[in-house]
């Protein structure tokens, strides 16, 4: 992680990318040190800054994390029959991320349904100015398993609220590249993953969008979001077989056509047993829902065009889900998500500057079970629309300015969005008549002393929070949810 790549002119970078694309490309949406050790490349080859991908990084991921420049003699001997066929990397494929956070909410944690003066059980906790050290620890085993099979296995410890380990967004991929013409490479992959959009190669999708992480005590995490967004990071135990194809063609392989199809189901079974009490609450919904009530298909289509120092993507991803309305009942909610997204990226290789602008819009059609139909949704139907606009500028791979605008609008449903969730201490998140409507702006400044560490400060300003704007006699104003976060991120 510690080495910088030489400064390349754009035409040389395109040439390198084309060579990798025609041979054995691969990458991941995280700048894992194990990938740098495997390839011998700097993180700057595949990332503007972790976890944002460059075109080289997208190619690296498309080929399933298998690119390596390690042990060429071992591979040559294998082809000549002088060694056994099993080629195992002689370096560690393990990586670790450690994240820490300090958070101040203008109105204190009580406006978020926080624990106030005590946790459940009586132990004291600050009602504001919360420090999480660590906020999260992520363990990865990622890289090439064989010449055409790679993996990205991710286990996360969450330090908030007592902590605990769980499988995070992970995948195992088999892939091959075919040369259809001198300027046309076809990449075909099959994979098993546990998070919708996990295999995507742009930073517009719900699993990889900016801001890339936030504290457990910010109001940001209580803004209502769509079902597909709430499955990011394996928040819901899912698994899917999938397949994708990418056709990269034209002069300098400047045109990308990408399609991905997956079918998700429950990874912990559906019968009564040890996991029957599992639940899922999307974006602060009051009733905890159960597991999927059947297969949930997911499809992704995207187009990218490269020219000079620029690349531009436009695409869509969609998912159709049926979810049990409660962890142990038979009633079902329906969530159909339809996305439109775009990304524009500029890379100045000579000065190590870059700019990425992202847009993501999701429209969700909702059908609620009878137990979750409020007076505002008497016909049992609703919708939620989310818009996310954000941009990141890095100067000399060292200093960054980020910012964005987020907006959520939808059908009020007091039984679904309510004033919850209610925590163990009985506190609730404020809401106005069950409205999910929220909007905010955020700005962030980051410092990257080296490629494997980042320090950031972020401020989020709310114009509306779950239907709340100005203060009333019984509810706080939206400004009470304004949040300051200090964030640290280390990788090795």
Report what the structure shows.
With 492 residues, the protein is mainly β. It has a single domain, classed as Beta Barrel (Porin). Helices cover 8% and strands 43% of the residues. It has helices at residues 10-22, 33-39, 55-62, 72-80, 227-230, and strands at residues 47-49, 52-53, 94-105, 130-146, 149-158, 165-167, 171-181, 184-193, 238-249, 255-266, 296-307, 310-324, 332-348, 353-367, 381-395, 399-410, 438-450, 453-464, 483-491. The strands form 2 sheets. It has a 16-stranded antiparallel β-barrel with strand order 3-4-5-7-8-9-10-11-12-13-14-15-16-17-18-19. A hairpin with a 2-residue loop joins β17 and β18 (453-464). The longest helix has 13 residues, at 10-22. The protein is globular. Residues 1-30, 115-125, 272-280 and 420-427 have low confidence and may be disordered.
Annotation keywords:
mainly beta; 16-stranded antiparallel barrel
pLDDT averaged over residues = 79
Order of helices and strands: HHEEHHEEEEEEHEEEEEEEEEEE
Strand order of the largest sheet: 3-4-5-7-8-9-10-11-12-13-14-15-16-17-18-19
Integer-rounded radius of gyration: 23 Å
- Enumerate how many helices there are, as a single number: 5
CA-CA gap between termini = 8 Å
Task: Give start-end ranges of low-pLDDT stretches.
Answer: 1-30, 115-125, 272-280, 420-427
- So, CATH architecture? Beta Barrel
CATH T-level fold name: Porin
What is the domain total for the residues?
Answer: 1
SS strand fraction: 35-45%
Task: Count the E strands.
Answer: 19
Proportion of helical residues = under 10%
Structural class: mainly beta
Bulk shape: globular
CATH secondary-structure class: Mainly Beta
Quick one: biggest sheet? 16 strands, antiparallel, barrel
């Amino acid at each position: 992680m510690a080495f910088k790549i030489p400064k390349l002119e754009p035409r040389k970078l395109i040439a390198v990318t084309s060579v990798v694309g025609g041979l054995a490309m691969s990458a991941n949406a995280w700048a894992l040190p194990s990938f740098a050790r495997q390839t011998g490349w700097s993180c700057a080859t595949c990332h503007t800054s972790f976890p944002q991908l460059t075109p080289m990084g997208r190619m690296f991921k498309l080929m399933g994390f298998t690119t390596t420049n390690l042990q060429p003699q071992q591979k040559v001997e294998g082809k000549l029959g002088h060694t056994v066929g099993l080629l195992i990397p002689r370096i560690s494929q393990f990586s670790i991320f450690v994240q820490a956070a300090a958070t101040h909410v203008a109105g204190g944690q009580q406006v978020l349904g926080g624990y106030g003066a005590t946790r459940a059980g009586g132990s004291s906790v600050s009602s504001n100015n919360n420090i999480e050290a660590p906020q999260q620890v992520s363990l990865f085993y990622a890289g090439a398993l064989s010449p055409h099979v790679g993996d990205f296995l991710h286990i996360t410890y969450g330090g908030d609220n007592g902590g605990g380990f769980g499988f995070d967004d992970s995948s195992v991929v088999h892939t091959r590249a075919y040369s259809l013409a001198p300027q046309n490479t076809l990449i075909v992959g099959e994979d098993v993953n546990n998070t919708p959009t996990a295999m995507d190669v742009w930073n517009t999708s719900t699993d990889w969008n900016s801001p890339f992480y936030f504290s457990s005590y910010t109001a940001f995490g209580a803004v209502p979001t769509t079902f597909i967004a709430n499955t990011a990071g394996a928040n819901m135990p899912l698994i899917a077989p999938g397949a994708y194809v990418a056709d990269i063609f034209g002069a300098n392989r400047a045109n990308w056509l990408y399609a991905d199809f997956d079918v998700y189901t429950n990874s912990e079974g559906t019968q009564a047993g040890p996991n029957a009490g599992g639940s899922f609450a999307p974006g602060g919904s009051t009733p905890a829902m159960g597991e999927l009530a059947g297969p949930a298909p997911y499809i992704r289509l995207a187009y990218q065009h490269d020219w000079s120092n620029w690349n531009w993507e436009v695409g869509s991803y969609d998912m159709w889900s049926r979810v049990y309305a409660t962890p142990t009942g038979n009633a079902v909610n329906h969530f159909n998500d339809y996305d439109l997204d775009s990304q524009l990226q500029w890379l100045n290789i000579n000065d190590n500057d870059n700019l990425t602008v992202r847009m993501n819009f999701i429209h969700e059609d909702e059908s609620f079970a009878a137990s979750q139909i409020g007076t505002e949704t008497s016909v049992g139907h609703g919708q939620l629309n989310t818009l996310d606009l954000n941009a990141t500028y890095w100067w000399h791979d060292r200093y960054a300015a980020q910012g964005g605008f987020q907006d959520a609008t939808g059908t009020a449903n007091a039984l679904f969005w309510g004033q919850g969730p209610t925590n163990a201490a009985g506190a609730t998140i404020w809401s106005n008549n069950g409205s999910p409507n929220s909007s905010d702006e955020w700005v962030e400044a980051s410092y990257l002393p080296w490629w494997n560490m980042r320090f950031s400060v972020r401020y989020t300003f709310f114009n509306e929070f779950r239907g709340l704007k100005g203060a009333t006699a019984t509810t706080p104003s939206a400004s009470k949810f304004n949040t300051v976060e200090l964030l640290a991120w280390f990788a090795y």
